[in-house]
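User:
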Amino acid sequence: MKRSAALILTILLFSQFIFSQSVENVLPITYLKYFEKAYPDITFTKRYDKQLKDWLVNISVPYTPGARGSRGRTFQFVWCNGSLLPMNEVRNAEKYWPLLYSYQRTLVDPANYTEEERERIKAFSSKESRKNGAGTPMFFFDAIYDSSSRVRLESHIKRVRFLGNLTNVHERMLEPLTRVEKRIYALAESNEEVKSFLANLKSNDAYYWRIIAGTKRKSFHSLGIAIDILPKKQGGKQIFWSWARDKYPNTWMLIPLKDRWMPPQSVISIFEEEGFIWGGKWVIYDNMHFEYHPELIQFNFSKAQGSS
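Assistant: Predicted structure:
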């Protein structure tokens, strides 16, 4: 679904709010392991720079996804508390969020929000916050998805059929998305809720190039690694925070979970297990939206399990 640049920006902004609530303020270089696990075909090397007083991280991205050790592109970043910034952006580090932040295993019940939390969410979603707040550093993603320009990015975009609908995605998302589809179809054979979910699907919208107005940042739809799964019927339920705000300007964040359209939990779990995060867990909820972020799944899920 094509949304305005302002709405797409809000999708990127949720992480700052969540990060400030529940993740360590300092991310050590040891957390690079979550990127290494998430992208096994990419080679990461690091060394400490005494002059910078920070870690330099070199990454080598193969031209052919999955072909670890083959010829590819090489990039250098400064760790910068997990923001992975190019050298010329280190001086602007305060403008960027860490790439690793808290992604909840379970949904937060909006009925439990305090008055202070409600006001913080309203302020976070405000036009001023969207315009002047910090943002997601896209440099690492531009490197691994070759998305420094639209021409370069679109050489990696593939047209596929997913859950019965044609859509365009980045080639790096083909394998995990195929696994998601296979598992959902298999589950639908014995699960009526999943079968009904599939029958109610209207479209799956993924790649859509968009530079966010007033910034140099792109939405993750612009990389072809985000997908919106839209139903034919919502049953009178809310699906996207901004649309809900048009009707309920002061209480959109308090809409009960039972009154929000969402995929079956089993479908959400399949996506997560294959490296996707779901927008329904964001405080500015986007219940149709999934993004391929295996580094976040590794950081939040394997960390909670105590894996090394």
